């Protein structure tokens, strides 16, 4: 045992999938709404930043070989989506939680992997495509969540709150074939860089 305050932190890196990313988006942003399309059976899921300091929390479960554990009051602090030249989306989630406790065993339900694939990616600068030189891209949403401690003689946090501004950052890695190309790119204003991502589904259709 160690003296002082304690808060749990951990990262989960998984394939970017429509079936598994919803909980992380809900927790990192705080508000969710869903509606069925009027002409099809598809649903539109919308996640927005809440004004509340308390976001959606979950109990995370993990089997660590020696026993089954649960992590209480789990709040997703940040979610980063990255895509490299292979085209498969990857989601890196950073979670804060209250503490670790042993739990009863359970049987997980494993779905068939269905990662979002970005087969066609276009990056434009001044209306000119530079996608042939881009190697990877990333986008990160961080709600700056932090542990809340009370003067109650307990080591573990009482809550995880999100009272700061939302931070959204991103970038991409690219290569140049000459120093003049590099100089031309560095001279471009930041707001002139436009990214357009297209994912091709299993049915062969493109989705923006």
Structure in words:
By secondary structure, the protein is mainly beta. Helices cover 8% and strands 47% of the residues. It is built from two helices and 15 strands. The strands form four sheets. Strands 1, 4, 5, 6, 7, 10 and 13 form a seven-stranded antiparallel sheet that branches. The radius of gyration is 21 Å and the shape is globular. The termini are far apart. The model is unreliable at 194-208 (pLDDT under 50).
Q: Give me the Rg, rounded.
A: 21 Å
User: Which secondary-structure class do the elements indicate?
Assistant: mainly beta
Provide the helix percentage. Answer: under 10%
Segments where pLDDT lies below 50 for 5+ residues?
Answer: 194-208
> On the 0-100 scale, what is the average pLDDT?
82
Q: Give the SSE string.
A: EHEEEEEEEEEEEEHEE
Task: Describe the main β-sheet briefly.
Answer: 7 strands, antiparallel
Please count the beta strands (DSSP E, at least 2 residues each): 15
Query: What oligomeric arrangement do these chains adopt?
Result: single chain
Strand fraction band? over 45%
Number of helices: 2
| Shape summary | globular
Straight-line distance between termini: 51 Å
